[in-house]
Amino acid sequence: MTKKIVSIFIAILFSTKFFWGVKPIEESKIERMRKIKKGTTYTEIVSLFGEPDEELGSGLVIVGYNFPESQIVLHFFTGESLQGLWEIKKNGEKIIYIPLQLDE
After folding, report:
1. What residues does each domain of the chain span?
2. 88 pairs with which residues across the strands?
3. Contacts of residue 95, Cβ cutoff 8 Å, sequence gap at least 6
4. CA dihedral 37, 77, 52, 44 (to 10 degrees)
5. What's the pLDDT tens digit per position in 61-75?
6. What is the DSSP letter of 60?
7. For the chain, first and last CA: distance in Å?
8. Mean residue pLDDT across the chain
9. By the 8 A CB rule, do 80 and 43 touch?
10. Most Cβ neighbours (<10 Å): which of 24, 62, 73, 79?
11. pTM tops 0.85
12. Residue 72's beta-bridge partner residues?
């Protein structure tokens, strides 16, 4: 039994990138932002990603984070929790990650 456990451990160890000295690729800031979940608070987002680059809303809390290839836009309506998330690429393409929906 112990031999079997040791064999399994060694097989796992040799199959991992860690053993071979290859560091796992870290997600970039923009990749992590694309995965933010609806309901995440403004405070949580600022603590993870820093202050936004732009305040885009007028009376509403809409902020933007600028990247070389695009801008991530976060919409909080007037509350604290995230309600919409989209990306606007430099070519004008818009990718919606969290569609805006008014809660009824």
Report:
1. 27-98
2. 71, 94
3. 86, 87, 89
4. -40
5. 889 999 999 999 999
6. S
7. 59
8. 81
9. yes
10. 73
11. no
12. 65, 87
